[in-house]
Specification:
The complex is a heterotrimer of chains A (255), B (206) and C (215).
Chain A lengths: L1 H24 L6 E7 L3 H15 L2 E7 L1 H9 L6 E3 L3 H9 L9 E6 L1 E5 L21 E4 L5 H12 L3 H4 L3 E4 L2 H9 L5 E5 L10 E2 L8 E7 L6 H11 L2 H9 L6
Parallel strand pairs in A: 1-2, 1-3, 6-7, 6-8
Antiparallel strand pairs in A: 3-10, 4-10, 5-8, 5-9
Helix pairs in contact in A: 2-9
Chain B lengths: L1 E8 L4 E8 L4 E5 L6 H9 L6 E6 L2 E5 L4 E2 L7 E4 L11 H6 L7 H14 L15 H13 L5 E5 L7 H15 L6 E5 L2 H7 L2 E4 L1
Parallel strand pairs in B: 3-9, 3-10, 7-8, 8-9
Antiparallel strand pairs in B: 1-2, 1-4, 4-5, 5-6
Chain C lengths: L3 H30 L5 H13 L2 H12 L4 H10 L7 H25 L3 H9 L4 H30 L2 H7 L9 H10 L3 H23 L4
The chains are: A alpha/beta (255), B alpha/beta (206), C mainly alpha (215).
């Protein structure tokens, strides 16, 4: 009996493996567009992607991740068609390595950062300077070394001369998603994250964009793409009125 | 006929021996532990190499430093029984003995094995695994396994040292009789003088 | 419910464990028995992937098999194969992280076999290959199964290196571990919890199965 069960499970696993194989070689009927985008663009791009798929009858495959990693992967030949990093210097860098087609570089939105706090705090955060208070014993921002929104957060804090005061209370999230998690799970009492990641109804303080370098959201077509036409169409679509509505909805400013 | 002439330097001793033994004779390498007796038979088997020398089995040179001859163990035609018998734990008695028998005919091999087992009265143990056998039984199986390949010389490394005293004496006599079925030279390594008394016709002192 | 991460993980873990077993037995045997110049260096190199963080490994892999590298260019130009962002890449990443475990398991397993047994086999006229197949391997089997179990579990849980090399493409390379990460990243904790249950269930099932061979 035992042997029978083993054989059956063995066949099941082999079956999965084998049919999995066949999936790969299936003929792709529709055109696919592969877009690599920074984590903060997740919700906005997902919605825009659906609109694009409807209008152009194709499939958009999104990969959301850390801009730094995505850039490295593209440089090393990852089959991506469009790249939307969290900051413009990545676009510029990839243009200089020849991985992005310079003429396709476009500015389509401007990101905003906000200050959020965890639930059940004893103290209310009325203005950003309140971060000095003892109650805010850990403040999460994205790692300024590789997350543009984290860098903007640091710049903003430096502009109002708060950075030196609270630096020892700062914890770094790997990206703004993780930064938000720290606050949402109550592990950090406050945090600076992207406006595009929070609910409209949530409580937050919008950080004055004069306090930091602009978070220019740029986009470009990857030079080793096999779907250049479709990629260019996507870039145009990102700048279209339809897309603009979505960006505004998710808290971006327009250029 | 087995001709052995070897020199080998080990950490604390120097082996420098030359001796020979005829078919049907039993030569005992006799001496205390660590005197290089086991090392010597290992060089005859080809499991390790001496520093220099000449070894001839049945008029065939299996090792000669000067002529650069050194046959691997599998080509020397030796039968070897190590100190703890070295039975393969994952094979039963039948499989252990059959392992070395050459040829494709499985039926024939089984038959031969059964014949050997009958010689020592252990046919009913053929399906048993080594861990189920007594010391004396293991020794006889190991011996059969070595002899089943029709070797040209038999090497026994302290064959009785792992056994109880009462078993030893009985086995010595049995093995002595048993060895008469094969007319090949036999090398017996031991530090027990009783072994020499009963079995050996020649001694080399180590 | 999207089951593709489950298929993908099982597929990757299966192929990874298969190749790791073959290569692992070979290298494990080499390290256990071989006497060659540079053996210690080789041994250290083999252990290295265990010491490096998976993301770092992934980064190096990216560079080594990406199209900018020597290997990557040959693959692309001669065979039109691109490994980045493919399941093949994920399998390679899993193999690299599992190999040290497998090799160590095989090596210590073979080393613990009484060498007298192999010596006896030689005097019985057997070739080294026959000895390896009929004496060494069967006696080392338990340790090898242990290695297979470890390799499979490691491959199922592989994340950092896979993410770097194969990316996070839903339906194509988003394995269970990456899917869980992705769910957490997008705040979808319910999905994440569910996937955690699935990966735990699948892994335990296969490990139980493998332990049946450990008689």
């Amino acid at each position: 009996m035992k042997k029978l069960i083993i054989i059956i499970i063995g066949i099941l696993i082999t079956g999965i493996v084998v049919t999995g194989c066949n999936k790969d070689t299936k003929v792709i009927i529709e055109q696919e567009l592969h877009v690599a985008a920074a984590a903060n663009l997740r919700f906005a791009f997902a919605e825009i992607g659906e609109l694009f798929e409807e209008e152009f009858d194709c499939k958009v495959i999104f990969q959301f991740g850390s801009t730094g990693n995505l850039a490295q992967q593209i440089i090393n030949g990852a089959p991506v068609d469009v790249f939307a990093p969290a900051s413009e210097n990545f676009i510029n860098e990839l243009i200089s390595t020849g991985d992005i087609i310079e003429e396709t570089k476009s500015l389509y939105a401007i990101g905003r950062i906000i200050l959020i706090t965890k639930d059940n705090l004893n103290v209310e955060l009325k203005k950003i300077e309140d971060l000095k208070l003892e109650e805010f014993n850990s403040i999460a921002i994205a790692n300024p070394n590789h997350a543009p929104y984290g860098l903007a957060a640091k710049e903003a804090l430096e502009s109002i001369k708060l950075w030196d005061v609270i630096e020892n209370k700062v914890v770094y999230g790997e990206n703004i998603s993780q930064t938000m998690q720290f606050v949402q799970t109550g592990n950090a009492s406050a945090g600076i994250t992207a406006l595009s990641l929070v609910d409209r109804e949530a409580e937050y303080i919008l950080i004055d964009d004069e306090l930091h370098n602009p978070l220019n959201q740029m986009i470009g077509v990857v030079s080793h793409t096999n779907s250049q036409e479709l990629a260019k169409l996507f870039i145009d679509f990102i700048k279209s009125a339809k897309a603009e509505t979505v960006f505004i909805k998710y808290g971006y400013s327009l250029p | 006929m087995l001709k052995v002439k070897i020199k080998k330097k080990l950490d604390d001793i120097l082996i420098n021996k030359e001796w020979e033994v005829d078919a049907g004779e039993v030569i005992s390498l006799f001496g205390p532990s660590g005197s290089g007796k086991s090392v010597t038979i290992n060089t005859i088997a080809g499991l390790i190499n001496p520093d220099s020398g000449h070894i001839e089995i049945d008029n065939r040179v299996v090792y000669d430093k000067e002529k650069n001859i050194c046959l691997p163990p599998k080509d020397r035609g030796v039968g070897y029984v190590p100190q703890n018998f070295g039975l393969f734990p994952h094979m039963n008695v039948m499989e252990n003995i059959m392992y070395g028998i050459k040829g494709k005919d499985r039926e024939l091999k089984i038959q031969k094995t059964m014949d050997y087992l009958k010689l020592v009265g252990l046919e009913n143990k053929k399906e048993k695994f080594p861990e189920e056998l007594s010391g004396g039984q293991k020794q006889r199986i190991a011996l059969l396994r070595a002899l089943a390949t029709n070797p040209k010389v038999l090497l026994l490394d302290e064959p009785f040292s792992a056994l109880d005293i009462n078993v030893k004496e009985k086995l010595r006599k049995e093995i002595k009789k048993f060895l008469t079925y094969w007319t090949i030279p036999v090398v017996l390594v031991t530090h027990d003088p009783r072994d020499v008394e009963v079995l050996a016709s020649k001694i080399v002192y180590y | 419910m999207n089951w593709s991460p489950v298929y993908l993980s099982i597929k990757v873990a299966f192929y990874s464990t298969l190749f790791t077993t073959i290569i692992g037995i070979l290298f494990g045997w080499l390290l256990a028995k071989g006497k060659f110049y540079g053996k210690n260096v080789f041994s250290a190199l083999v252990t290295l992937p265990m010491v490096l963080p998976p993301t770092v490994l992934g980064y190096y892999l990216l560079i080594i098999i990406g199209r900018q590298s020597f290997i990557g260019r040959i693959l692309l130009e001669k065979f039109n194969i691109n490994l980045i962002f493919t399941l093949k890449g994920a399998v390679i990443a899993s193999i690299i992280v599992s190999l040290p475990l497998m090799i160590r398991a095989v090596q210590s397993s073979i080393e613990s076999i009484d060498s007298t047994l192999e010596d006896v086999a030689r005097t019985l006229g057997k070739s080294e290959m026959s000895i390896f197949l009929r004496i060494t391997l069967p006696l080392a089997w338990k340790g090898i199964i242990g290695g297979i179990v470890l390799s499979f579990a490691r491959a199922m849980g592989e994340f950092g290196a896979t993410l770097m090399v194969a990316g996070n493409i839903p339906g194509k390379t988003q394995t269970l571990s990456i899917a869980i990460y992705d769910s957490v990243q997008s705040g979808n904790y319910e999905q994440a919890n569910f996937l955690v249950l699935v990966i735990s269930g699948v892994t335990i099932l296969v490990l139980l199965l493998l332990s049946k061979f450990n008689i």
